[in-house]
Amino acid sequence: MRAIINSHRFLYQLLSRTKTKISSCFLIRSMSSEVNQNFNKSRLVIKKVLAKPQREGEGATVRRSIGRIELKSLDPFLMLDEFSVSPPAGFPDHPHRGFETVTYMLEGAFSHQDFSGHKGTIKTGDVQWMTAGRGIIHSEMPAGEGIQGGLQLWINLASKDKMIEPRYQEIQSKDIERAEKDGVEVRIIAGESMGIRSPVYTRTPTMYLDFTMKSGAQLHQSIPESWNAFVYVIEGEGIFGSTNSSPITARHTLVLGSGDGFSVYNKSGSSLRFVLIGGQPLNEPVVQYGPFVMNTQAEIDQTFEDYRYSKNGFEKAKYWKSQPLG
Question: Are 255 and 46 in contact (CB under 8 A)?
């Protein structure tokens, strides 16, 4: 009898310990899956492009990744430059048609003038989202001594939007939405992160997120599955897409593969900063000649004629010239 009772006690204790282990394992699995609960498949890095320096404007140097031979474009994105400019270098009077430019200041300030009388200065952390549409001529020049730097992204417009009137969205740093969680801070320039959505209107649906991650932090961000997306590493090094990937350092653009989310791990001893940018592909033909982006060669030819004869959107170009900064 005592042997039977002891056996029952032994079985009870064994089952209790087993139940605890099973519960613990379930809890660990639950916590692990909870991290990625906002998406099903994490995107992996399928291409890495180093941003290489080249001359642009007058005496200016940019580091270009999208727009080079290695990565001609990534629909709807046409170009990505990291610029670093000191006076008197800059980008004097030049035209655009058929797309948008997004200028994000990382340090210093840049002043802008256009042939419609619009002018202003964007400073560190500010954003200018310019829709060139049917045509604009403007200048972009450093507004202070020393290095003035930032990112400029070109986003294509759909054929139905290429000839709309130009417009601006200028957002001061203090007005950009922010969120922070578990060692990750995000500035939400466009799109949504951590449950917070930017008020910026994107004619071509776009997300533009600036992340800073502390050492040891990890990030899991949803991305619409049908969109193209990429990362540009601003500073530090991180592990992107998969925990067993090799660390990638600053000034690399990382093209992301298919999936509905993206994971990043900062296993270094210092902070990591990068932008995550995604957009809905337009799936339209692209014919580009410098600052003109249309759908056909005939439209490019017409654009050159419009620009040359100051018509169809370029009327104000005939008598306009930017003024020196005072």
Answer: yes
